Amino acid sequence: MIDLYYWTTPNGHKVSIFLEEAGLEYRIVPVHIGKGEQFAPEFLKIAPNNRIPAIVDHAPADGGEPIALFESGAILEYLADKTGQFLPRETRARFSVLQWLYWQMGGVGPMAGQNHHFVRYAPEPIPYAIDRYVKETARLYGVLDRQLAGREYVAGEYSIADMAIYPWAKLWKMQQQKLEDFPNMAAWLGRLDARPAVQRAYALVEQVNTDPQALLTAEARRLLFGQ
After folding, report:
1. Rounded to the nearest 5°, which phi and psi values hold at 157?
2. Which intervals hold domain GST N-terminal (predicted)?
3. pLDDT score of 227 more than 60
4. 2-85+198-225: which CATH topology?
């Protein structure tokens, strides 16, 4: 059994997609980031950076004590190694996947995250910041679009790289992007949209987060951004 400490954000979706794709038994532990639950002492023992997602694996492969992990990229890599799925063993294929996983962690996540902040959450519009992050998001999706030319998935076979990138790229409209600018990415999004495991992972949103506007309140902004 794996405990998934989760909220309905792109990073949270990455891990729920993997768990559904791999057919692993897991339990959702909601962490409402708009109410400050990420600062609870019991959660900080698992995720000292007070961010979701995090997991506790009660049946690690080594048969030892439960393993707690935070950081979505590390979680995906751990689960892939645990199950032998969605991350090749062979060196060249493995690092083809990992480089795109890290590209998401170091590029798409932070840049699209800042895009979300200044476009949607900032208390007042800052045109320079909006322009900066909207353009950088577009640049990154251009990189992705070129990589997907002639490929069904980012590293050839479906992998944790796709699972990591998809929840961010899926939000292209909120990020002020035009999907027609990225035809290969658009086709790839359609392929992932159609996967039953992805659909099951996103169905968790309605179970866990009954108020999608909760992160837009003044109190939620104070907790999330120190405003």
Report:
1. -85, 150
2. 1-87
3. no
4. Glutaredoxin (3.40.30)
User: How many other C-beta atoms lie within 10 A of the C-beta of residue 32?
Assistant: 18
- The CATH T-level fold of domain 91-194 is Glutathione S-transferase Yfyf (Class Pi); Chain A, domain 2 (1.20.1050)
The candidate with the shortest Cα–Cα distance to 121, out of 226, 6, 8, 12, is 226
pLDDT at residue 165 in the model: 98
Determine the Cα angle at 185 with ends 182 and 186, to 5°: 85
Q: Given this model, what pLDDT does residue 157 score? A: 97
pTM above 0.85, yes or no: yes
Cis peptide preceding 53, ω within 30 of 0: yes
Amino acid occupying residue 109: G
What are the CA-CA distances from residue 189 to residues 132, 168, 171, 173 (Å)? 24, 11, 10, 13
CATH 1.20.1050.10 domain locations along the chain: 91-194
- In whole angstroms, what is the distance from residue 170 CA to residue 150 CA? 20
